[in-house]
Amino acid sequence: MKKIGLYFGTFNPIHIGHMVIANYMVEFSDLDEVWFVVTPQSPFKTKKTLLDNHHRYQMVFEATKDFPKLKPSKIEFDLPQPNYTINTLVHLDEEYGKEYHFCLIMGEDNLKGFHKWKNYEAILENYDLYVYPRISDGIVEHQFKDHPKIHRVNAPVMEISSTFIRKNHALGKNVRTMLPDAVWKYMDEMNFYR
């Protein structure tokens, strides 16, 4: 049974920080593949800053096409919105549960707010969490400190953000080095975030 790490995000746009973390997870943990789950609408983000779903999916496709262990996923595009992780996990298990064992990839900043997630207890009961380090304020709740389902992976700390890229690209700064080449090319050709 393949172990799949699900890396959720709006990927607006996907950048080298996302790629480094996903590749680190697949090469230096027991995950067989990482699926980038492109989220159409997060309960915690406003939709107005998002590019259309198919453009963000296309950028993830472009970024991952040369990496066989990294896959784009638009599974959430057809699910009711807003998208809650528990609903997506249940849907994936119903669809692929016989061939794949799904796990969740998240930054430590998300773990600090994990107790606010819809049905977080059910997620922890049925799925493993792979947590990578992030510099952020706040503390990890005591209940998550030594939990057997929470695996800390010592991936590099990536301080690049999609927000930073969008903002500075609009200001005319050169952000090309922060993006996979194919993503930069697509973004530039489509004149995004100007």
Report what the structure shows.
This protein has 194 residues and is an alpha/beta fold. 37% of the residues lie in helices and 18% in strands. The protein has helices at 16-28, 53-64, 85-96, 108-112, 120-126, 142-145, 162-170, 181-189; strands spanning 2-9, 33-38, 70-73, 100-107, 128-132, 150-152. It has a six-stranded parallel sheet with strand order 3-2-1-4-5-6, sandwiched between helices. Helix 2 (53-64) packs antiparallel against helix 8. The longest helix is centred in the first third of the chain and has 13 residues, at 16-28. The radius of gyration is 16 Å and the shape is globular. The N and C termini lie far apart (44 Å).
Summarize the helices and strands and which ones pair or pack.
Layout: E1 2-9, H1 16-28, E2 33-38, H2 53-64, E3 70-73, H3 85-96, E4 100-107, H4 108-112, H5 120-126, E5 128-132, H6 142-145, E6 150-152, H7 162-170, H8 181-189
Parallel strand pairs: 1-2, 1-4, 2-3, 4-5, 5-6
Helix pairs in contact: 2-8
Descriptive key words:
single chain, 194 residues, six-stranded parallel beta sheet, 8 helices, 37% helix, globular
